[in-house]
Amino acid sequence: MVLEMLTGSDIKQDDKEIVEYHHNFQKWKDSLLERINTPWCMFDFPWKFYKMYHNHNEIVSNMNGFAKRRLEELMVKEKSNNKPKTEGKFISFLEELSNVGLSKQELLDEIHAVLFGGFETTATTTHFFCFMMALYPEYQELCRKEIDEVFSDPLLTHDGTLTYDAVSSLKFVEQCLLETLRLYPPAFMLMRNLKKNFIFDYEGKNVNVPSGTHIIIGAYAIQRSEKYYPNPEVFNPDRFLPEECAKRNPYTYLSFSAGPRNCVGYKFSMNELKTIVAYMLRKFEITTTDKLNDVTLLPNITLTPERGYNFLFKKRKF
Ligand code: HEM
């Protein structure tokens, strides 16, 4: 979906290049982790003598090759298309960016930023959402009720597919997604470099963190803190009712970060996730044989389950 939004082209699910890009992304993460876990490799000189360095370079060059090919295809398509830019179904994200005059390198950087930011985050969130729905069948039923109502409303569907308004109206599904992301934020910690001195109160003492310090903000820890979320380990979508959100400091929810460098794909990804799970729950009932503590969570750049959870998708009868 994210690549279709970027390029405006239909992407086949089994597109070999996409599957390969995904494998390369996983390998890139592994090489980055190996570098982080091997302290002397943090310096460029020893890192260059490490076996993983060469693998890392090969992976990066494969991913760059993919991004270049997709961009060139798009540029050829754009040249041969004489229609004015506003005509046609919709303008792809890359077309919009090239219209504002970004260079080829800047467009390539955007492709990587959006693919890195939008690929795995959405995939793992869908996976964790299925797990929560399987563990809490009462919430799965409530989501399905809301989804069925939308599908049976002729004003919210078009030839059996959901309209934008339909997706926007899935409020309870959205609450369940936000609650899933509270418990399982893919970006479980955020990193910042302080531009100003930062003074905060710690157990009655003023602590001064000087500007230039690299800090880590523990989104996972904040979102599982009893102080902000009573019974934090319990999946409770009511925490995201508007009146409950209004009671909380907005900076206690950091799944999409906050401030000027927050997630640019926030709205897109919520609509994407709501669409995916609406079609999934419309067609299937989800159960699992796994328990909450069966699978270890790994801090592998993004929050990743050690193995995938087991699901049974039972086709619904209408
Ligand atoms: C469940 C889905 C997603 C989650 C949880 C998520 C989370 C985040 C977070 C936490 C950040 C900030 C990182 C930081 O502050 O260091 C971020 C940045 C970003 N995200 Fe997302 N994201 C999601 C989906 C997407 C999608 C679908 C796209 C693309 C369409 C996207 C594009 C980006 C980009 C380009 C940035 C960098 C923004 C910047 O540095 O200014 N994300 N995302």
TrEMBL record:
This is Cytochrome P450. It is found in: Endoplasmic reticulum membrane; Microsome membrane. InterPro entries: Cyt_P450, Cyt_P450_CS, Cyt_P450_E_grp-I, Cyt_P450_sf, Cytochrome_P450_Monoox. Its main location: endoplasmic reticulum. Its cofactor is heme. It comes from Orchesella dallaii. Keywords: Endoplasmic reticulum, Heme, Iron, Membrane, Metal-binding, Microsome, Monooxygenase, Oxidoreductase. The keyword Membrane applies. It comes from the Eukaryota. PANTHER family: CYTOCHROME P450 4C3-RELATED, CYTOCHROME P450 FAMILY 4. Pfam families: p450 (PF00067). Belongs to the cytochrome P450 family.
